[in-house]
């Protein structure tokens, strides 16, 4: 796996996760209190930094084959989940991920919540909401960064790519102060699901002492093969859905 492929895979995955967190933070800050929202965000980021500091060195101590098997399993779980949802959305069986709708829902819930002050936190609801959003979405970012980086012994590169993705989304959110609905998140989730599934299968097999023809070059046909299979499923499900609608 080249450095460029590592950066692209981590960057896209982290952008997808960051969009959801930033949407919630923007809703809380707009409807409630920006100071409390940013305090919750900062505390969440500090917790994630501590997790990274603990996980990074410890993962590097694991022998390579068990590490690849573990990383491959984790990436397959993430990839297949994302790919399944992306296929269902593309075929019409699941609603498209709409950041505008999420922003409106979070905005309405934030405005309706009671204001509670605790210590230096002026609005406890905003603080907790943003803290949870950062930690929950951020843990997936941390897991992706650590697994990709440790497996390739490029943890620093993976961390920089992940940080770049999060910073780009944060800058866009601050610039427009609106949901990032222009980011083609559904398409990105489809692409990231394909890449995570391919890398998970590749590394999992290597960790189980299997060998791929051409070694890393096998990813050049494995990724298109998974993408092609996913597109076939989308076309098939769309056809079934169209027939069901005609029958109904």
From TrEMBL:
The keyword Membrane applies. It comes from the Bacteria. The chain crosses the membrane at residues 6-28, 40-59, 65-83, 124-149, 155-176, 188-205, 217-237. Keywords: Membrane, Transmembrane, Transmembrane helix. This is GDT1 family protein. The keyword Translocase does not apply.
